[in-house]
UniProtKB/TrEMBL annotation:
Any single Pfam family the record assigns to this protein: ABC_membrane
Name under which the protein is recorded: ABC-type glutathione-S-conjugate transporter
Gene Ontology molecular function: any one: ATP binding
PROSITE patterns documented for this protein: ABC_TM1F (PS50929)
Keyword Cytoplasm appears in the UniProt entry: no
Gene Ontology cellular-component terms listed: endomembrane system; membrane
Keywords: ATP-binding, Membrane, Nucleotide-binding, Repeat, Transmembrane, Transmembrane helix, Transport
Species this chain originates from: Anopheles stephensi
Length: 1244
């Protein structure tokens, strides 16, 4: 027997399989318990201590007061140090104790406990109220001490002779274990708030700052807000303040610091050149010298990486850990299937089930923290970009302003900055997806061998297809953004001049102009819908194709290949890991679809010796399921990166625009004249001189009029008296809203005009042509409008808005579904039910196939199983494709209809509603909301459908040729005594006549018929959706243009624009996609529970309690997230309103040097929006952790019941049950999230 190097170190065996594994009563050796189980937690503390020290150094707090918690921690650590010293002294003084382990282990423990005590004190000194590192250290030490505790107790009970050293070890270790458990429990509590902090400590601080580490990783600190949101409608006062590090005050300066450095480097690298021009006019001549620089554009990406890269990198490590744990589930599934089919002791099966639950739970926590970190990094990026764009808008030159409209700049904030946030969440898939694909293929190779290459070949072939798709998406995206910018710009101009439009009855003319632009958008959407519908078709085939091709390849490639339950269900589990991203973007699912189908088909068809048994089938499918996520995420990531690259170029172009020189205007206090221009030379942004030799002197108490076609603003009058200037300055200091400032700056300041500038109610008389307002004076103008329209109740609009946004009634769903078409909606549900039926049938059939021994020897039986399995997949393809395309067309039709309604209603509103509606809110409806609705439509239907038809047709012919050649070769090479003597000639001729004829003609014809019918169905649905979108937009536009002036006087303009931007975007993209996905998701959950219950009938007993728990979590989340979405939507409009008004009055703002004040107000509005958005992010993580834990319970019970019922279950049923359970976690999460998204998109 070989000895381990650690045997001599411990004086006993380090590892003994007979004691640990090959026994009914397992235990660990004393050497292993005293080394690995002690050294591992200590090593963890020392290795990751640099992170703790790093956060201590960055801490903004100081001096946590002494409390019972931190004093108790130090006392317990001191007790552990003392106990360890006694252990060391006892070992040295006891005779016969010569093994080095009794000396080295206490020394390691002593150093570690001293270091842990030091960290406790440093946490107190630097203001850290809880430590994740110390919590995990004491947790690991407690868990690792449990085996030795069991060993010591059992040894003590069995001890007959007295042994002083053994008795001492028993007592000492029990004290050690008790102190360790107590220390672990103390880490569930948090210390008192620090005495000193960089930030003000208030009662409204984020609860996360006062939450312990366990509360943070489980997001338990969000429970109170979830309960409040469930019991009553949330208000802004119910929300807490955001964390200081997420505020504009902290984020913007850090980003601008790195951005300014990037600009400086770019300017230094620009090449300069001197241009000389000579002009001669009559007897005079002039020479102009002009210095020009090459236009090198600085990119925002380096500044973003330097500012947020550290936080992002830590999240990437969390993602790496989660990815590695993902592949543990298929291996454990393989062990469970082997356990059921073998005669191993029961404790092993229980250990497998518990290990599967622990692995899934750890994945849940890692993934929750990863997404939470990535979402907040994206939020900070969005904040930084909005801040930079706003500051740039204040200093951009006039020549550069010609190339950027208000609508375009607003879209930079509303759409382009948001795309950075969306991309940040999944950008790690750049390395994560290849890693998962590589590991999945490695494990699949271990099971199926070279048959996996069939699926891999399909993925490689589709790489250029993805490149073409990415280019098409980029082209469509650019067109869509241009059309949207043009539409929002025109809508902004219409609302700004609504009084003039109504005076001359020009509403129909402008309505037609807006609808023409909308028609251009719809054309782009149609192209996207065609492409997307075809993509949905390919995606619906993915799970089945991946499995059938891989299994068929495996079985047919070699007669010795048998599809066992282990192989089948482990492969299915690996496939399922890659499934959920496919839902996000159907384009990418093409990979996963064809991977499993090609792989299995190759395995089965290559050699008759390859048999698909339960082990092969379900272990392989488990691995294939893992492949689905990265394979589907890669195309989605490519699409997001393409869209973000467009946004990067747009933002880079804007931020690199020419700026005004602040030194052009000088302020000299010694000069008596308020305005003096001597020999002035004026040009338009560096172009040829427009005006030269201008001399102007304006004295006090002098009225001067400057008349000319170059004027942009209204004629401004200079105040007659100095006290008026002082009054204006005082008003500037006291005014609250940017709108008040602009109106007062534009208002005539003479005494006569000042007496007329206010009405009896005290409201400001707005004489500006822009007629723009903000939320700060909305209530004031609403009171004014009540005098104009006395029959309108005072709070009618407010009550109506609250009633419509507080909850979602069935009438709202019914109205939207009616816009889509009731027939199409019902057909979608039925077709998805049929799809799930085929899905269940295919997996049940696979389970039967993998356990049928006759399929191992009879190729005709094997071929029958393979054919029926393929038929189930064809049914899935047919049902899913028709359903997805039908709903896509209906959704586009509904979005078009709603946009038309919105436009019509806005144009019919009275002026009173316009005066009380912020412009940004209305613009948001016509820009971002419309964009949201449009983008969810499928984008890749035409190309995908065409390629699918071509591939299937060519593939059928190639399969016919290959099968004919293989069949002929095997017949000719078959031995006479073993084949021709027992096989009728008719059967052989039948293979060469009827079967080959079927593959040559019937199969391609059937496939063509399916593809054609699916394409026509999808096309019908897409056209219906587009028509609905057009009709909606047309009705909305007509309604708005035909509204009375009272409506415009009482409705903030920003709210109207929001209807035509964000709301239409929701109708075009988000809402159809959510409703389309929620139907199959619900049916998938039901199907999973049904399959597990069929496989393991006892599982039905836990469905009810798990269902109640799921329902409770779902109701809490949906109620709270819907209201958070409402608050976030309401707080988003003021950002765009204030920004639009700032751009319109930027000359006045610069004239009075109040840029800092407006920047501060913009940052405050962004923070107010984030105040509502941050809880929404936490709500998503809160939901994910709880729902995934519910899913983990399903996994636990499915595995546990399979282990306990192994006497009555076969390996195929066990693999089917557990592999389905492994798929349900993300499905449950997505079901609740889509339900919430549907409601929030409807009410927002």
């Amino acid at each position: 027997m070989e000895t381990h190097p650690m045997d001599e170190f411990c004086g006993s065996r380090f590892w003994d399989l007979n004691l640990t594994w090959y026994t009914d009563d397992p235990d660990l050796t004393p050497c292993f318990q005293q080394t690995v189980l002690v050294w591992a937690p200590c090593a963890f503390l020392w290795v990751f201590s640099f992170l703790e020290l790093f956060y201590l150094r960055k801490s903004a707090n100081k001096d946590v007061p002494w409390s019972v918690v931190n004093v108790s921690k130090l006392l317990i650590v001191g007790s552990l140090v003392a106990l360890t010293i006694v252990d060391l002294v006892k070992a040295i003084s006891t005779d016969g104790i010569s093994a080095p382990v009794y000396y080295y282990t206490p020394v390691i423990k002593l150093a570690t406990f001293v270091f842990a005590g030091l960290l406790v004190y440093l946490n107190k000194h630097y203001g850290m109220r809880t430590s994740g590192l110390l919590f995990l250290f004491w947790f690991l030490l407690t868990i690792c001490s449990i085996p030795r505790t069991r060993t010591e107790i059992r040894a003590h009970e069995a001890r007959v002779l007295e042994d002083s050293w053994a008795e001492y070890q028993f007592v000492s270790f029990l004290i050690f274990f008790s102190l360790t458990c107590l220390m672990f429990l103390l880490n569930f509590f948090i210390d008192k708030p620090p005495r000193q902090s960089k930030y003000e400590i208030t009662d409204k601080d984020c609860p996360e700052l006062s939450a312990s580490f366990p509360s943070r990783i489980f997001f338990a600190w969000f429970d109170r807000l979830a309960w409040v949101g469930f019991r009553k409608p949330l208000e802004v006062d119910d929300l807490w303040k955001m964390k200081p590090e997420d505020s504009s005050k902290e984020v913007s300066p850090a980003f601008l610091h790195h951005w300014n450095k990037t600009l400086e480097k770019t300017y230094q690298t620009r090449e300069t050149s001197n241009d000389v021009t000579f002009k001669k006019l009559g007897n005079t001549a002039s020479v102009d010298f002009r210095t020009t620089k090459s236009k090198n554009i600085a990119s925002i990406l380096p500044a973003l990486i330097k500012t947020f890269g550290g936080t992002f990198l830590l999240g990437s490590f969390l993602k790496l850990g989660q990815d590695l744990l993902t592949f543990a589930s298929p291996q454990i599934l393989k062990l469970i299937i082997d356990f059921v089919s073998g005669d191993e002791p029961m404790w092993k099966g229980l250990m497998y089930a518990i290990t599967l639950f622990v692995v899934a739970g750890t994945q849940t926590l890692l993934l929750g923290q990863y997404f939470n970190r990535m979402f907040f990094v994206g939020l900070r990026i969005r904040t930084a970009l909005i801040s930079a764009i706003y500051r740039k808008a204040l200093i951009i030159s006039n020549s550069a302003r010609k190339g950027s409209t208000v609508g375009e700049i607003v879209n930079l904030m509303a759409v382009d900055a948001q795309r950075f946030m969306d991309l940040t969440t999944y950008i790690n898939m750049i390395w994560s997806a290849p890693l998962q694909i590589g590991l999945a293929l490695y494990f699949l190779w271990q099971i199926l061998g070279p048959s996996v290459l069939a699926g891999l070949a399909v993925m490689i072939i589709l790489i250029p297809v993805n490149g073409v798709i990415a280019n098409m998406i980029k082209t469509l995206q650019i067109k869509q953004m241009k059309n949207k910018d043009e539409r929002v710009k025109l809508m902004n101009e219409v609302l700004s001049g609504i009084k003039v439009l109504k005076l001359y009855a020009w509403e129909p003319s402008f309505e037609q102009q807006i609808l023409k632009i909308r028609d251009k958008e719809v054309k782009v959407l149609k192209s996207a819908a065609y492409l997307n519908a075809g993509t949905s078709f390919i995606w619906s085939c993915a799970p089945f194709l991946v499995s059938i091709i891989s299994f068929a390849t495996y079985v047919l490639s070699d007669d010795s290949h048998v599809l066992t339950p282990v192989k089948a269900f482990v492969c299915l589990t690996l496939f399922d890991i890659l499934r959920m991203p496919l839902v996000l973007l159907p384009v990418l699912i093409v990979y996963a679809i064809q991977v499993s189908l090609v792989t299995f088909a190759t395995y089965v068809l290559v050699d008759e010796n390859n048999v698909l048994n339960a082990s092969t089938a379900f272990v392989s499918l488990s691995l294939f399921n893992i492949l689905r996520f990265p394979l589907s995420m890669l195309p989605m990531l490519i699409s997001n990166m393409v869209q973000t690259s467009v946004s990067v170029k747009r933002i880079n172009t804007f931020l690199n625009q020419e700026e005004l020189d602040p030194d052009n205007v000088q302020h000299d206090e010694k000069e008596s004249s308020p305005l003096l221009i001597e020999n002035g030379v004026f040009s338009w942004g560096g172009e040829d001189t427009t005006l030269k030799n201008i001399n102007v002197r304006v004295e006090r108490n002098q009225i001067v009029a400057v008349v000319g076609t170059f004027l942009i603003q209204h004629l401004q009058e200079v105040s007659e008296e100095e006290e008026d200037l002082d009054e204006i300055k005082q008003q500037l200091e006291n005014s609250v809203g940017g709108e008040d400032l602009l109106n007062q700056l534009k208002r005539t300041n003479s005494k006569r005009s000042r007496s007329e500038s206010t009405s009896e109610t005290g409201s400001v008389k707005d004489i500006s042509r822009q007629n723009s307002t903000t939320d700060s004076n909305s209530s004031l103008r609403r009171r004014t409008s009540e005098k104009v329209v006395p029959d309108v109740p005072k709070t009618k609009l407010i009550e109506q808005e609250k009633s419509e946004t507080g909850s979602v009634k069935w009438e709202v769903y019914k109205h939207y579904l009616k816009s889509i078409g009731l027939t199409l909606s019902v057909a979608t549900v039925i077709l998805n039910m049929i799809f799930q039926g085929f899905s269940i049938g295919s997996n049940l059939w696979l389970s039967r196939w993998s356990t049928d021994e006759s399929a191992e020897n009879d190729t005709s039986v094997r071929d029958m199983y393979l054919g029926v399995y393929g038929a189930f997949g064809a049914g899935q393809v047919l049902a899913n494709f028709i359903a997805s395309l039908t709903f896509a067309l209906g959704a586009l039709y509904a979005a078009k209809t709603m946009h038309e309604l919105l436009l019509r209603y806005v144009l019919r509103w009275p002026m009173s509603l316009y005066d009380t509606t912020p412009l940004g809110r209305v613009l948001n409806r016509f820009s971002k909301d419309v964009d949201t609705v449009d983008n969810t439509l499928p984008q890749l239907i035409l190309l995908s459908t065409f390629l699918s038809t071509l591939f299937l047709y060519v593939g059928a012919l190639e399969a016919s040729r290959t099968l004919h050649k293989t069949l002929l070769r095997r017949v000719l090479h078959a031995p006479l005594t073993s084949f021709f003597d027992i096989t009728p000639v008719g059967r052989v001729l039948n293979r060469f006549s009827k079967d080959i004829d079927t593959t040559d003609s019937d199969l391609p014809a059937t496939l063509r018929a399916w593809i054609l019918s699916l394409y026509l169905s999808v096309l019908t649905l897409v056209m219906g959706s587009i028509q609905a979108t057009l009709i909606l937009h047309r009705r909305l536009l007509a309604g708005i243009l035909r509204s009375g002036m009272t409506f415009f006087d009482t409705t903030p303009r920003g709210r109207i624009i929001a209807r035509f931007s964000n709301d239409i975007n929701t109708l075009d993209y988000s809402l159809p996609m959510n409703i389309k996905n929620i139907i199959p998701t619900v049916l998938r959950v039901v199907a999973t529970l049904v399959v597990i219950s069929i496989s393991t009938p006892i599982f039905a007993a836990v469905i009810v309690p798990i269902g109640v728990l799921y329902y409770a979590v779902q109701r809490f989340y949906v109620a709270t997230s819907r209201q958070l979405k409402r608050l976030e939507s309401v707080s988003r409009s003021p950002i765009y309103s204030h920004f639009g008004e700032t751009i319109q009055g930027v000359q006045t703002i610069r004239a009075y040097s109040v840029q800092d004040r407006f920047i501060t107000e913009s940052d405050e509005r962004v923070d107010s929006n984030q105040l509502c958005y941050c809880p929404s992010i936490i709500a998503n993580r809160w939901l994910a952790v709880r729902l995934e834990m519910v899913g983990n319970l399903i996994i636990l019970f499915a595995a546990l019941f399979a282990v306990l019922g192994r006497e009555t279950m076969n390996a195929g049923l066990v693999g089917l049950s557990v592999s389905y359970a492994l798929q349900i976690t993300q499905t449950l999460n997505w079901l609740v999230r889509m339900t919430s998204d549907v409601e929030t998109n409807i009410v927002a």
